[in-house]
Design a protein that fits this description.
Elements (H helix, E strand, L loop, with lengths): L1 H11 L5 E5 L5 H9 L2 E5 L21 E5 L8 H9 L4 E5 L29 H10 L3 E5 L2 E5 L5 H12 L3 H4 L7 H9 L1
Parallel strand pairs: 1-2, 1-3, 3-4
Antiparallel strand pairs: 4-6, 5-6
Helix pairs in contact: 1-5
GO biological process, one term: methylation
Protein name: Methyltransferase domain-containing protein
Pfam family, one: Methyltransf_23
Amino acid sequence: MATQVSTLLICFFDIKAKFVDYAGGYGVFVRMMRDIGFDYYWDDKYTSNLFAKGFEANKNQQVEVVTSFESLEHFVDPLSEIEKMLTISNTIMFSTELIPESKSPDPKWWYLGLDHGQHISFYKTETLDFIATKYTLHYQKFMGIHILSKQQLSPIKLFIAKILIKLKLNTLLLKSVNSKTISDFNLLSR
């Protein structure tokens, strides 16, 4: 996800802004994004921050983009969680598997997770369209990432971003950001 998100941030957003990974787990994604060069912060009320300590999000601070990967299917009240994310940003990028096109998922569908019971909310494209409409957002997809945003991302630029990633030319875009690895180390070692 770091490759896709980095490319999207560089192509469409203010790369000098702050970003939050909501339901960020152990903080691996935040650490990766900071190592790439983005001012990313961690937030998760259920997990310990192991890899991005010192970079916890300030509550209610406005950020450019909120990311949330493989978490929406765990939310008991997804709309409430989306509303929380929208209080700090106009853009949410997230991942979740969509229900297959059939009317109801096959009980053998791997993503149901019947053996662990942790997946309790499921989505179709129509569901995400409904959420976008409810909150006056645009819904778009990009290489496994769902995007809900006040901003309509140019389909042509999204296509070009996808080509850059497939050809591994997106690394050229990364020259526009500077890794925070050393500066983070220096900050935390004081």
